[in-house]
TrEMBL record, chain B:
GO cellular component, one term: plasma membrane
Family: Belongs to the TRAP transporter large permease family.
Role noted for this protein: Part of the tripartite ATP-independent periplasmic (TRAP) transport system.
MF GO annotations: transmembrane transporter activity
Keywords: Cell inner membrane, Cell membrane, Membrane, Transmembrane, Transmembrane helix, Transport
Transmembrane segments: 6-37, 49-71, 91-116, 137-164, 176-197, 217-242, 248-266, 278-301, 321-350, 362-388, 408-429
Domain TRAP C4-dicarboxylate transport system permease DctM subunit: 10-424
Subcellular location: Cell inner membrane
The keyword Cytoplasm is annotated on this UniProt entry: no
Lineage of the organism: Bacteria, Pseudomonadati, Pseudomonadota, Alphaproteobacteria, Rhodobacterales
Descriptive protein name: TRAP transporter large permease protein
UniProt-listed Pfam families: DctM (PF06808)
Recorded superkingdom: Bacteria
Organism, as annotated: Frigidibacter mobilis
Automatic annotation (TrEMBL), chain C:
Membrane topology: Multi-pass membrane protein
Summary of the function given for this chain in its UniProt record: Part of the tripartite ATP-independent periplasmic (TRAP) transport system.
InterPro entries, sorted: DctQ, TRAP_DctQ
Protein name: TRAP transporter small permease protein
C-alpha cells in the first residue's frame, strides 16, 4: 500500500449516501489502484464534527473528507450552484454539465482558491418536496405552511410564497411531523426518506422535488496532499471518482423507484404537482439565485455570477433541445 | 489496533486511582489520540469536544435538572411526597412505587436519560430518607426509575438507533412500548414483593392516620392537581404536537417555576440555588459526555471497529451466538461509553450482519436498547450511579448504590430474556398502530 | 500564591454565575419558539441555534466551578483506601502536570478557532439565521481557559495536602 487515508463524511454510517457514495468510492479506488490506495470511510461525528468535514481536512486532522457544498452555502453562496438549488437542473442535465459542460472545472477552481483539490464523488437524484399533513397543490396551500426545510428553499418559501420555514433538528423531525407540530418537512430523495419512516407520520407525499432537483457530494483534500501522490495514481483516483458518481446515480434511481412503489402500497396519497405550479416555484428559485449572484458581484465577488451564467446557458440549451430524449414518463 | 485494545484497561486504571470519570476519559483519549493523529491529535479532540458541545439533544438535560431543583428547593416535592405517603403509606414500599411511577411518567416526556434520574432523585431522596427507607432501595429505585427514559417513547436513543440502522423510527418506538411497560411492571412488582417478604427496609410510612379525612382530601387536591397539571403540560405539549421533546423540557422547567410561585415558596434565593445546582450537575454530566465523545472518536480512529469486526468474523458463530455476542459487546462498551458513543460505534457495525442473517431488525434493536439501559445501571461503571452520586447525600455510599441497583439489573436481564424468548412482544404492536 | 489561587476561584465562580443566566436564556428561547410556532404560527429562525449554543456555553462555563466544588464524579472504592498523602499526590500530578496542559492546549486551539472565525467572518454552517460564530467560539475558549486554571489550582492544593474539599457537598 502506498497511501492510506481516513475519510470522514457528513452523514451517519447507516445512511444510503454513506454506502452508495463513500463506501463505493473506497471499493472502486481499491479496484482501480490494485489496492495501492486504501480509503477508510468513517461516519458522521466519529472523527470530526458532521458539518466540519472541510475544516477537518484544512486542519490536517484527516487526509481527505467527504461532504457536500450545501454546508458551505452560508459561507460562500457560489456553493449553492454545485449543491443544487430550487429551480436548477435535474440530475440528467446537471451530471452532463458537470462532466461535459465545465461544471467540474468550475468547482475545482473554487476549491483551488481555498487550497483544496476536489473529486466529485456522488450526484443525487431529485428529493421529495414534502411529506405533509396538509395537501399541497397550489401556491395558496403554501401560505402559512409550517415547513421544515433549510438553505435557499427556506428563503424562497418565505419571501415568494409566504410559507413559514421552521428549524427542526434531525432527531426531532419525525416526532414533530407525526404530532402535527409542523405541517410539512423535506429531507431527501425517496430512497433516503423511506427508511426514515416519514410516510408513516404524515398522510401526503408531494413530488417532484422542485427545491432540490439534484445534489452533489465531493471528496476534498489539501492541494499538497494531492500533489504528493505518485503521478500514476492521480488519474486512477479521478477515474474511481467518476465511476462512483455514475454508478451511484443509477443505483439511486433504482432504489428511488422501489421506494416510490413501496409508498404506493401504503395509504399515503402521492400528489404530483401541476406543471404550471412547478414552473412558478422554479422561477422563484432561479430569481433567488440570480439576485444572490448579483449581490455577490456587487460586493466584488464576481465568480458566482460568471459560473451561474454558464450554468444557466447550459440549462437553456438542454431544455431547448432535450425534447428528442425518451424519458419513459407516464 | 493495539492502542485501541489498550484504551479500556488504561481507562479503568485511571478511574480506580480515583480521578474523576470525565478526566480519566480525557487523559486516555489524548494519549491514544496522539498515536492516531500525531500532531493534529489535539485538533481532532477539540473537534469531538465541539461535537458534544453543539449537540442539541443535550439541551433537555439542564432544563429537566432545573425543574427538579426548583420543585425540591421550593418544598413542592416535600409536599407532594407527604401527600403520597398519606395514601400510599399503608402499601409496602409505597413511596418507592410512586417514585418508579414518576420515573415512568417523566420518561414519557423526556428523550434523554440522566435528566429524569437527577430530577426525580432530587425530589425523592430526601422524602424517602425521612420515611426511613433503606439507602440501597432508594438508590436502586432512583437509578432504575430514572433510566426508563431509554425504553419509553420518545427516546432519543431509539431515534438515533433507527437512523443509523435505517429502520422505521415509528416502528421501533412502538415496538419498545410493551417491553418498556413490562419492565416498569417488573420493577413495581419487585418493590411490592420485597416489601411483603422483607418488610424491614421498606417502611409502611409514618403513621398519619390521625389526619382528618377532610384535611387529607384538601391537601391532596391542592398538591396533586397542580403537579398533575405540570405533568400534563409536559406530556401534553409533546402528544398534542405543541412542543418537541426538548422544548417540552422547557415547558416543565417553566411550569415548576409557576408551581413554586403558586405555593408562595418562590424567592430569589430558591431560584439562585436551583440555578447553581443546575449548572454544576449539567457541567458534570456534559463533561462526561464530551470526554466520552473524544474517547469514541479516538477508539474508532485507532481501528476499534476493525478490532470488533475481526472478533465477530473470527468467532464463526451461529445466529443465536452472534446475537449474544453483539449484546455482550454493547454491554461491555456501555461500561465506559456514553450511550450516544455506544450506539454510534455498534449499530453500523452490527447492522449488516443482522440483515444478512435475516434477524428482525426491530426486535434486535429493542434488545440492544434494553442492554444499553442495563449497562447504564450495572456497577462498577454505571452512568446511572455517577449521576446519582452527584445529588446523593453524604451518608449514601457508593457501595450502597452498587448493591441497590443489583436487583433492578436482574429485572432488566429478565426483561431481556422474556423479549428474547417472545419476539412477538416487540413485533406485534408496530403493525397495529404505525401508519395510516 | 494564596491570592492567586483565590483569584482563580473567584473567576470560576463568576463564570458559573454567567452560566446560570445562560440556563434562563435557554429556557426562554425554547418557550418563545413553542409560543411563536404554535400560537402565532411564526416560528423563529434562531431558537434552535440559541438552544444548542446556550447548552454548550452553560456547561463549558460551569465546568471550572464544578471542579472547584469537586462535583466531577469519581469512584473512590479503591482510592479511599490510599492514605491522604497518596491521594494528594495522585490528584496533584494528574491535575497540575497532565490535565492542566491538556486543557491549556484545547483552550489554545479554541482561541485559534475563534480568531479564524473572526477574521473569515464565519457564520453557522446550516442555519437559515446564519449567526456569526466567533462569539460562541470565544465563550467556549474562555470556559476551557478557566477550567485549565482551576485544574492547576486544584493540583497545587492537592500537592500541598489541601486536597479534595470535604465540606462542599450540596451547597446551600
Ligand atoms: Na423517553
Ligand atoms: Na455499567
Amino acid at each position: 500500500q502506498d497511501v492510506t487515508w481516513r475519510v470522514p463524511t457528513s452523514v451517519p454510517e447507516g445512511s444510503p449516501y454513506y454506502v452508495n457514495f463513500l463506501v463505493r468510492f473506497a471499493e472502486n479506488v481499491d479496484l482501480l489502484t490494485d489496492s495501492r490506495v486504501e480509503i477508510q470511510p468513517f461516519g458522521a461525528g466519529v472523527l470530526v464534527p458532521a458539518l466540519q468535514v472541510y475544516d477537518g481536512v484544512r486542519d490536517g486532522i484527516v487526509e481527505a473528507g467527504h461532504s457536500t457544498p450545501s454546508y458551505l452555502v452560508n459561507q460562500n453562496p457560489e456553493n449553492a450552484i454545485y449543491a443544487g438549488f430550487p429551480g436548477g437542473m435535474g440530475p440528467e442535465a446537471y451530471t452532463t454539465w458537470i462532466y461535459e459542460g465545465g461544471g467540474k472545472e468550475a468547482l475545482e477552481k473554487l476549491r483551488a482558491s481555498e487550497g483544496m483539490k476536489s473529486l466529485v464523488v456522488g450526484i443525487g437524484s431529485s428529493e421529495i418536496m414534502a411529506h405533509s399533513n396538509k395537501p399541497i397543490r397550489t401556491a395558496e396551500d403554501l401560505k402559512g405552511l409550517k415547513y421544515r426545510t433549510s438553505g435557499p428553499w427556506a428563503a424562497v418559501m418565505k419571501d415568494y410564497f409566504g410559507a413559514v420555514p421552521t428549524v427542526v433538528p434531525p432527531g426531532e423531525i419525525y416526532t414533530l411531523l407525526e404530532r402535527k407540530g409542523v405541517d410539512a418537512i423535506e429531507w431527501g430523495p425517496p430512497s433516503g426518506n423511506l427508511p426514515e419512516g416519514f410516510h408513516e407520520a404524515a398522510p401526503y407525499i408531494v413530488v417532484p422535488g422542485v427545491h432540490q432537483p439534484t445534489f452533489l457530494w465531493e471528496v476534498v483534500m489539501k492541494q499538497e496532499t494531492w500533489d504528493a501522490l505518485p503521478e500514476d495514481l492521480k488519474p486512477k483516483l479521478e477515474a474511481a471518482a467518476e465511476l462512483t458518481t455514475l454508478q451511484a446515480l443509477t443505483h439511486m434511481y433504482d432504489q428511488d423507484i422501489k421506494a416510490m412503489e413501496q409508498f404506493r402500497t401504503t395509504n399515503v396519497e402521492i400528489i404530483n404537482l401541476d406543471p404550471a405550479f412547478i414552473e412558478e416555484m422554479s422561477d422563484a428559485g432561479r430569481d433567488w439565485i440570480a439576485k444572490t449572484a448579483e449581490a455577490e458581484a456587487a460586493a466584488g465577488r464576481g465568480t458566482m455570477k460568471e459560473v451561474l451564467a454558464d450554468y444557466t446557458d447550459y440549462r437553456t440549451r438542454w431544455s431547448a433541445e432535450s425534447g428528442y430524449l425518451i424519458r419513459n414518463e407516464d | 489496533m493495539l492502542t485501541a485494545s489498550l484504551m479500556f484497561p488504561a481507562l479503568f486504571a485511571l478511574i480506580l486511582l480515583g480521578l474523576p470519570i470525565a478526566f480519566s476519559l480525557t487523559i486516555v483519549s489524548v494519549g491514544a489520540g496522539l498515536v492516531a493523529f500525531g500532531t493534529a491529535g489535539f485538533n481532532q479532540l477539540y473537534g469531538s469536544f465541539y461535537s458534544a458541545v453543539t449537540n442539541f439533544i443535550l439541551s433537555a438535560i439542564p432544563m429537566f435538572i432545573l425543574m427538579g431543583a426548583l420543585l425540591e428547593r421550593s418544598g413542592v416535592a416535600e409536599r407532594l411526597f407527604r401527600v403520597m405517603s398519606l395514601w400510599l403509606g399503608k402499601l409496602p414500599g409505597g413511596i418507592a412505587l410512586a417514585t418508579i411511577a414518576m420515573g415512568g411518567v417523566f420518561a414519557a416526556a423526556a428523550g434523554v436519560v440522566g435528566a429524569v434520574e437527577v430530577m426525580i432523585g432530587m425530589m425523592a431522596i430526601p422524602a424517602m430518607q425521612r420515611l426511613g427507607y433503606d439507602n440501597k432501595l432508594i438508590a436502586g429505585t432512583i437509578c432504575a426509575g430514572g433510566s426508563l427514559g431509554t425504553m419509553i417513547p420518545p427516546s432519543v436513543i431509539a431515534v438515533m438507533y433507527a437512523s443509523l440502522a435505517q429502520v422505521s423510527v415509528g416502528k421501533l418506538l412502538a415496538g419498545m412500548i410493551l417491553p418498556g411497560l413490562l419492565m416498569v411492571g417488573l420493577f413495581l412488582a419487585y418493590i411490592v414483593i420485597q416489601g411483603m417478604v422483607r418488610p424491614v427496609p421498606v417502611p409502611r410510612g409514618p403513621v398519619e392516620d390521625d389526619v382528618p379525612l377532610r384535611e387529607k382530601l384538601w391537601l391532596t387536591v391542592t398538591t396533586l392537581l397542580p403537579v398533575f397539571a405540570l405533568i400534563l403540560a409536559v406530556l401534553g405539549s409533546i402528544l398534542g404536537g405543541i412542543a418537541s421533546p426538548t422544548e417540552a423540557a422547557a415547558v416543565g422547567a417553566a411550569g415548576a417555576l409557576l408551581l413554586c410561585i403558586g405555593y408562595g415558596r418562590f424567592s430569589i434565593r430558591v431560584l439562585k440555588e436551583s440555578l447553581s445546582i443546575t449548572v454544576r450537575i449539567s457541567a458534570m454530566i456534559l463533561l462526561i459526555v464530551a470526554a466520552g465523545t473524544m474517547f469514541m472518536g479516538v477508539f474508532a480512529a485507532n481501528g476499534g471497529a476493525t478490532l470488533i469486526r475481526g472478533g465477530i468474523e473470527g468467532a464463526g458463530l451461529g445466529t443465536t451466538g452472534m446475537i449474544v455476542f453483539f449484546l455482550l459487546i454493547v454491554f461491555l462498551l456501555g461500561f465506559v461509553l456514553d450511550w450516544t458513543a455506544n450506539v454510534l460505534i455498534c449499530v453500523p457495525l452490527f447492522t449488516p450482519f443482522i440483515r444478512s442473517a435475516g434477524i428482525d431488525p426491530i426486535w434486535f434493536a429493542t434488545m440492544v436498547i434494553i442492554v444499553i439501559q442495563t449497562s447504564y445501571l450495572t456497577p462498577p461503571m454505571a452512568s446511572a450511579i455517577f449521576y446519582l452520586k452527584s445529588i446523593a447525600p453524604k451518608d449514601m455510599t457508593y457501595g450502597q448504590m452498587c448493591r441497590g441497583v443489583v436487583p433492578f439489573v436482574g429485572l432488566q436481564i429478565l426483561t431481556l430474556a422474556i423479549v428474547a424468548a417472545f419476539p412477538v412482544l416487540v413485533t406485534w404492536l408496530p403493525g397495529h398502530i404505525v401508519g395510516f | 500564591m494564596k491570592t492567586l489561587l483565590s483569584a482563580i476561584d473567584r473567576t470560576s465562580a463568576g463564570l458559573g454565575r454567567i452560566a446560570e443566566v445562560v440556563v434562563l436564556i435557554l429556557i426562554v428561547a425554547m418557550l418563545y419558539e413553542v409560543a411563536a410556532r404554535y400560537i402565532f404560527g411564526a416560528p423563529t429562525l434562531w431558537a434552535f441555534d440559541i438552544a444548542y449554543m446556550s447548552t454548550g456555553v452553560l456547561f463549558v462555563l460551569g465546568a471550572a466551578q464544578a471542579l472547584r466544588q469537586d462535583a466531577h464524579v469519581r469512584i473512590d472504592v479503591l482510592s479511599s483506601r490510599f492514605s491522604h498523602r497518596v491521594r494528594g499526590w495522585i490528584d496533584g500530578i494528574a491535575f497540575l502536570f497532565v490535565l492542566a496542559p491538556i486543557f491549556c492546549k484545547l483552550a489554545w486551539i479554541g482561541g485559534q478557532r475563534t480568531w479564524r472565525a473572526y477574521t473569515l467572518g464565519e457564520v453557522e454552517h446550516v442555519s437559515p439565521w446564519a449567526p456569526l460564530m466567533w462569539p460562541f467560539y470565544a465563550l467556549l475558549t474562555i470556559g476551557l481557559a478557566a477550567l485549565t486554571l482551576q485544574l492547576a489550582a486544584q493540583g497545587i492544593r492537592a500537592l500541598a495536602g489541601r486536597g479534595r474539599p470535604a465540606d462542599l457537598t450540596l451547597e446551600s
